[in-house]
Design a protein that fits this description.
alpha+beta, Tetrahydropterin Synthase, Chain A, two-stranded antiparallel sheet, about 80 residues, 2 strands
């Protein structure tokens, strides 16, 4: 099944952009506070996956999350298989 682009954009805005854009991850995102999880690309991919997957309508499956630092440095996550 496919999700409408407007609905998916809203999920991305709420779960990714509003939480991470222009933020200090260790200070502004409780899950990545000092002494907790280190905000590596891999950890961010899992965090984002969990939030987006939970918001998708029934029958819609997330296939991959990619957190890219640059074209040669990125982390892909395909969920817990």
């Amino acid at each position: 099944m496919i999700i409408g682009l407007e609905q998916f954009d809203e999920i991305l805005r709420e779960e990714v952009i509003e939480k991470f854009d222009h933020r200090h991850l260790n200070e502004d995102v409780p899950e990545f506070a000092y002494g907790k999880s280190i905000p590596t690309a891999e950890a961010l991919a899992v965090y984002i996956w969990d939030r987006i997957a939970a918001r998708l309508p029934e029958g819609v499956e997330l296939q991959r999350i990619r957190v890219e630092e640059n074209p040669d440095l990125y982390a892909d996550y395909h969920g817990k298989d």
